[in-house]
Q: What sequence folds into this?
DNA sequence: AAAGAAGGTAAACATAGTTTACCAACAATG
DNA sequence: CATTGTTGGTAAACTATGTTTACCTTCTTT
């Protein structure tokens, strides 16, 4: 190993939970966008992922999506307009609920969302191969416990 | 539990690794910015975190930081200019290395970075309390193995 | 010496978000 | 039952943050 490589190599032992979560989360994020585009779902970019993510936006009101994504209703509404133009979803009137609207996937939207899930499952297979199925299951279980706790709120 | 609450509640079992990593990573990210600002390190915002994160930018060239952050050298250079104006760092000439420059924390920069680490350690204590020390250690160990693997590249 | 590569910087531009402002539908209240 | 307030949504102006394009300086190569 060269001196520069040794200097660049990072010490996992010193790493705190922030970086340990951030790095793989970002890598996954980028990969999903890349593979969606490659699979013919063009036009989808980073910001759109605030909509195309768990839990599914299908059947949900715009304001709720804005809150989930931690952004203003106006910003979310623009994203929705953009995704509508790209043919992934439609905003329909909610019957009997005042001015409320409801976001619905189009056929194309359903396909794109399914593709994203497919990519994620492939990533899970890779991780499972690297860590071993038992340890990967453990990892998911632990992260699930974090999610269910008040820590993430 | 009301009907609407039940509908909103999310099923951890169904969650894929993307959401399981993303949600806590984002929560931690926001909290660090909030607590840094509250501790008197004002002006620091989301984009600055591309610099203020592991591994430390201290002693590193701007181009390397750009690559680490996955952004253009120009965008990084602006961030660095902003952080320089805020008094957190300085770009100094690198001796005997052509046009190269080196990023150095100021006193204030060192203090802010130390504060961020302190917040992270507090978060780790909280997680450790929630999961139990053993399971939290396991979680970090597993994430460390992911980091060391080619999965994150 | 000339050409090219590496590192950095600057300005124009595009994108994506917030702020401000407004409209429509329903609920509550006198 | 008219007025007021609340909720949900939308539009436009503004702000920030990033990329693209272009250029400068220093060092290396030929």
A:
């Amino acid at each position: 190993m060269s001196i520069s490589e040794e200097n660049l190599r990072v010490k996992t032992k010193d790493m705190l939970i922030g970086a340990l979560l951030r790095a793989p989360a970002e890598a996954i994020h980028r990969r999903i966008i890349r593979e969606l585009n490659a699979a013919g779902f063009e036009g989808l970019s980073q910001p759109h992922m605030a909509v195309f993510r768990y839990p599914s936006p299908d059947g949900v009101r715009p304001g709720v999506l804005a809150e989930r994504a931690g952004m203003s209703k106006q910003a979310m509404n623009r994203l929705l307009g953009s995704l509508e133009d790209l043919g992934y979803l439609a905003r329909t009137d909610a019957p009997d609920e005042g001015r409320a609207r409801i976001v619905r996937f189009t056929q194309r939207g359903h396909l794109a969302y399914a593709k994203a899930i497919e990519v994620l499952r492939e990533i899970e297979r890779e991780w499972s191969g690297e860590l071993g199925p038992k340890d990967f299951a453990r990892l998911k279980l632990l992260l699930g416990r974090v999610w269910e706790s008040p820590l993430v709120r």
Summary: Chain B touches chain A through 48 residues (CB under 8 Å). The longest strand of chain B covers residues 89-93. The longest helix of chain B spans residues 107-131. The two ends of chain B are 43 Å apart (CA to CA).
